[in-house]
Amino acid sequence: MLTDIKPGLEGVVAAETRLSSVDGLAGELIIAGFPLEALATNATFEETVYLLWHDRLPDAAALNTLREQLVQRRPIPDEVVALLRAAAQRQTAAIDALRMGAAALSLSSSGGAENDALTLIAAFPTLIAAYWRLTSGAEPLAPRADLSHTANYLYMLTGQMPNAAQTRGLETYLNTVCDHGLNASTFTARVIISTESDMISAVVGALGALKGPLHGGAPGPALDMVFEIGSAENAEPYLRARLERGERLMGFGHRVYKVRDPRADVLKIAAEQMFRHGGDMALYTLAGQVEQTALRLLEMVKPGRGLQTNVEFYTALILHGLGLPVALFTPTFAIGRVAGWTAHCFEQIALRRLIRPQSVYTGERARRWQPLEER
Ligand code: ACO
């Protein structure tokens, strides 16, 4: 008899993974053996992908091979550009355009889990940048083989070469969000691939899960709050009024982390380095003042709840500082997380085990069939 039901699967352990460890009480995130702080700020995104897929850092030759494999797969087929053009004409949300474009990558991948994974990683920036340019009436830019994954994304969005601090800022962000335990989108990908479906289907399903505001769709409001506050003096009255109305402060609190989210610290430092090199330092300083005031008020108004800055607060600041519009925040998150999704799929494929939980039936058991004329 099944009686122990966990509707949100809280506390249920459904997989073993060597990819990431999330300790919400210690505020610790380990990615493939590295503390987040060490990996995120040092690795290129290509190194992170290799690490997740192979469980070791690449040597120079292996890194070069991976770079070339990705560069070859950056261009997207004309049919996919046509699809994005149609989506842009209808003002489709960027995350939906990415989902449609990702599904259409079956046209360019030569198949098999590894090829599909390489194609997905390589083509996500091209899909998003092409779509974004089409929505503003510009034509997509061809990817540049001489640029890194991260620099090429920024170049394809704007047509400008990013500076080293911007590239590093985005690199650190993508590494920070590459994997995070058995979150909803990763679980979705594992369920799909466990049926021996294909990698592209698994990642398209994961994108569908990521889109929801309870998962990947929240960084915009944290930034709006900083803009609405506008000045250090206004932080306390604004935040107090919000809390008195029973509203939540965006960018604070987390279901798993009950101490500071380690990703917030990594991104705060990355944001500072980026903003110092030609960014809007006044905005960075204001965000810090808003954060400090919010933490103080949250401890006063909600004592003992462990409400700390979450990943979304500094994500918003970094992505805004890179010139990205809010509509691209969740798609850009996906550029990082697809590394984790594909790595989890490889783990699940190796496991060869269908994910198939059970449900408890709560309906009636002895209904009498009524012919249509009697209902
Ligand atoms: N501002 C004010 N109060 C808060 C906040 C907040 N940001 N977050 C939680 N609280 C309060 C709740 O009102 C509740 O108070 P109570 O005990 O008096 O009823 C208490 O803290 C516990 O809150 P829960 O809802 O149980 O916490 P939960 O773990 O479900 O919430 C969540 C996590 C949804 C992230 C929440 O903190 C929140 O809404 N934050 C703001 C939105 C946000 O930043 N979202 C992005 C999250 S990052 C990510 O998911 C990747």
Describe this entry's structure for a reader.
The chain has helices at residues 36-42, 45-54, 60-72, 78-89, 94-103, 113-135, 149-158, 164-176, 184-194, 199-210, 219-229, 232-244, 262-276, 281-301, 311-321, 329-351; strands at 20-23, 28-31, 34-35. The protein has 375 residues and is an all-alpha fold. A three-stranded antiparallel sheet has the order 1-2-3. Strand 2 (28-31) and strand 3 (34-35) form a beta hairpin. Helix 2 runs parallel beside helix 16. The radius of gyration is 22 Å and the shape is globular. The mean pLDDT is 95. The chain binds acetyl coenzyme *A (ACO).
How is the biggest beta sheet arranged?
3 strands, antiparallel
Label the structural class: mainly alpha
| Proportion in helices | 55-70%
Question: What string, H for helix and E for strand, traces the elements in order?
Answer: EEEHHHHHHHHHHHHHHHH
Instruction: Determine the N-to-C terminus distance.
Output: 34 Å
Note the total helix count: 16
The number of distinct β-strands equals 3
The pLDDT mean sits at 95
Instruction: List the uncertain runs.
Output: none
User: Which strand order do you get reading across the main beta sheet?
Assistant: 1-2-3
Bound molecules: acetyl coenzyme *A
Q: Name the overall outline.
A: globular
In short:
This protein is an all-alpha fold and 375 residues long. It has helices spanning 36-42, 45-54, 60-72, 78-89, 94-103, 113-135, 149-158, 164-176, 184-194, 199-210, 219-229, 232-244, 262-276, 281-301, 311-321, 329-351, and strands at 20-23, 28-31, 34-35.
